[in-house]
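Exercise 3.2. Students should predict the tertiary structure of the chain below and write it as structure tokens, then compare their answer with the key that follows.

Predict this chain's 3D structure.
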Amino acid sequence: MPVIIDGHNLLWSVQKISEDFESVSDVQLCRIIGRYLKLISNTGEIIFDGTGPPDKSAFDNISNLEVLFAGLGSDADTVIENKIKASTAPKRLTVVSSDRRLRDAARARKATTVKSEVFWANLRRQLGRKKTIKEPPAKRSGLSESETKQWLKFFGLEQ
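Answer key:
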């Protein structure tokens, strides 16, 4: 399910609700979102207002996330609305924004909407989980008698 993110709306929400993320930059935010999207095996686009920095190379090679800037003649909300309207499968879209205008546009096409704060909380929770590694059964049950004899023989400790 592709994700379309209102960049500055999410960045503002992150800085507002997360004390430790007050100084998060747009590039850092994109890298964090990229890691999250890769973890959940999803792709997305984040759209920021304006033209962005002159050197956009910091936004290159962010996995699973395409970074776009609305440009001078438009704004991120309009670009996102157009993407929602142009989607051939709007029910598969997830639009991340707390902006009522975008949430209404997404709902009109039956796309899923997620408020920025909720998206960020879910992202932090997912990235904070530790991957569990399956233990080998022998760890709990120990070695069999024949395996024990083999190892004792190998180390020259057999009686």
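Discussion points: The beta strands are 3-6, 44-48, 65-69, 94-96, 112-114. The helical segments are 7-17, 26-39, 76-86, 100-108, 116-128, 137-141, 145-154.
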